[in-house]
Specification:
The chain is mostly helical and 243 residues long. It is globular. The two termini are 28 Å apart. 49% of the residues are buried.
């Protein structure tokens, strides 16, 4: 159990992390899109630390199965700019209220859903990689949703390269964000304890996702989960604006 969190809220958060982890195991991202709106509605004090900590652990499990064809040159251009973006993201976290956090998370999810629906094609260049790294640093630290800008660039690459490259990006990026939040004092022991409690949901999601990605094409699974993510984000934004 997590101190101060009801059984019902914990079950809801656990389910959201499970679904998000499964989606990420199948298509390369998803835990933030699915779980961030739910956690922000149910237990905003856990954000963004708990999801960033889980985003650090999830790629470790993913890389056990997918570690071939990682695009290291692309990572070399995106990760340095992620550090700069993280600094701005830490400042945002330190100055947001719970209401503002809800609006920010919901808005970011909606933007991310639109961008990852394959409506835009952005070429992979040094500039686009650096910009994606910077934006991911800001949004990943402030809202725990830092993958979509990077996924937008790699959406037309082979699935195994997307999963493996995104896993390394999440692993190093989450570590950078956690260091920044720790220095600023915005990462709490309460959030880390919640991460430990929710870790089984991540493991179960990966276990479920590995066989699913061999049986279900991403173009079938991904739109359904993105619709759920968008619906959760709309509810979160409306609730935050009314609060």
């Amino acid at each position: 159990m997590i101190a101060g969190v009801s059984t019902g809220a914990l079950a809801l958060v656990f389910l959201a992390v499970l679904v998000g982890s499964t989606m990420q195991a199948v298509v390369g991202l998803g835990i933030g899109l699915v779980a961030a709106p739910v956690i922000t509605m149910a237990e905003p004090q856990l954000m963004p630390g708990v999801l960033i900590a889980l985003a650090l652990l999830l790629p470790c499990v993913t890389l056990l199965h997918d570690h071939e064809d990682i695009d290291w040159p692309g990572l070399n251009w995106s990760l340095p700019s992620r550090i700069v973006g993280t600094a701005l993201g830490v400042w945002v976290v330190s100055h947001l209220s719970e209401r503002e956090l809800g609006i920010s998370v919901g808005g970011m999810v909606l933007v991310a859903v639109l961008l990852t629906w394959k409506v835009v094609t952005v070429p992979i260049t040094r500039t686009s990689l650096s910009v994606a790294g910077f934006i991911g640093g800001v949004t990943g630290t402030a809202t725990s949703i830092g993958g979509p800008p990077y996924a937008l660039l790699y959406q037309h690459r082979p699935p195994h390269q997307i999963r493996s490259t995104m896993a390394v990006y999440f692993l190093i990026g989450a570590a950078i964000s956690l260091v920044g939040l720790t220095i600023s004092g915005d990462l709490t022991l309460h959030q880390l304890h919640a991460c430990a409690v929710l870790l089984p949901a991540v493991v179960l999601g990966v276990v479920a996702g590995i066989p699913l990605r061999r049986r279900l094409p991403a173009h079938v699974v991904r739109p359904a989960v993105l619709v759920i993510s968008a619906a959760s984000a709309v509810v979160l934004v409306v609730r935050s604006l009314a609060g």
